[in-house]
Write a structure and sequence with these properties.
The protein is mostly helical and 172 residues long. It has one domain. Helix content is 79%, strand content 0%. The protein has six helices and no strands. α1 packs antiparallel against α6, α3 packs antiparallel against α4 and α4 runs antiparallel to α5.
Length: 172
C-alpha cells in the first residue's frame, strides 16, 4: 500500500472534518447538526484503489470519532462498510458525472445517518423530528458542497501526481 497516496487522500478529509466542525458550531444556535459521512466516503470509493482508499476512509473515520461521544471506531467502521459497498458498485456509476456523484454522496450520507441514528440515538420516537431536521440540513449542505469537494480532491490528486511525474523525470 502506498502511504503517500493514503496521506494525500486523508488531507481533504481532515479539511472536511474541520469545516464540518465549524458548520456544526454555527448551526448549534439553531439546534441543528450537519453530518457529512457520505462526503468522507463517496469520492475515494469511486476513484481510488481499494487498499489505499479504505485506509484513508478509516483514518477519516477515526478523525470523526475523535470528537464524538460515541465509542471510538464507530465512524471508522461505518465508513469502511460504506466504502466497501460503494467500491463494489462503482463500475455501474459514472465517475465524471457531477449529478451522479452528488446523488451517490447523498445516498451514502442518508444511509450512514440512518445507521448512526438507529445505533446511537437514545430518544426513540420523540427524537425523530429533530433527526429529520438534521437529515434535511445535512442533505441540503451536501448537495451544495459535493461538486466543490469532489473537485478539490480530484485537483489535489492531479497536482501531486503531476509533481511526482516531473520529479521522476528530472531524476532520470
Amino acid at each position: 500500500m502506498n502511504l503517500r497516496r493514503v496521506a494525500l487522500l486523508t488531507v481533504p478529509l481532515l479539511l472536511l472534518w474541520a469545516i464540518q466542525t465549524e458548520v456544526n458550531h454555527l448551526l448549534s444556535s439553531r439546534q441543528l447538526f450537519f453530518f457529512a459521512g457520505g462526503l468522507h466516503v463517496a469520492f475515494i470509493a469511486l476513484t481510488q484503489p481499494f487498499g489505499p482508499g479504505l485506509a484513508a476512509v478509516l483514518v477519516g473515520g477515526l478523525l470523526c470519532d475523535a470528537a464524538t461521544p460515541f465509542a471510538f471506531g464507530t465512524h471508522a467502521a461505518l465508513f469502511g462498510f460504506a466504502h466497501n459497498i460503494i467500491f463494489r458498485m462503482r463500475d455501474r456509476i459514472p465517475k465524471d458525472d457531477a449529478i451522479a456523484a452528488t446523488l451517490l454522496a447523498l445516498f451514502a450520507n442518508f444511509g450512514l445517518f440512518l445507521v448512526m441514528s438507529a445505533l446511537l440515538s437514545p430518544g426513540g420516537p420523540a427524537a425523530w423530528p429533530r433527526l429529520a431536521a438534521d437529515l434535511v440540513c445535512s442533505q441540503v449542505i451536501i448537495t451544495l458542497v459535493t461538486p466543490w469537494f469532489f473537485s478539490l480532491q480530484g485537483r489535489l490528486l492531479d497536482l501531486v501526481e503531476t509533481a511526482l511525474a516531473l520529479r521522476a523525470e528530472r531524476l532520470r
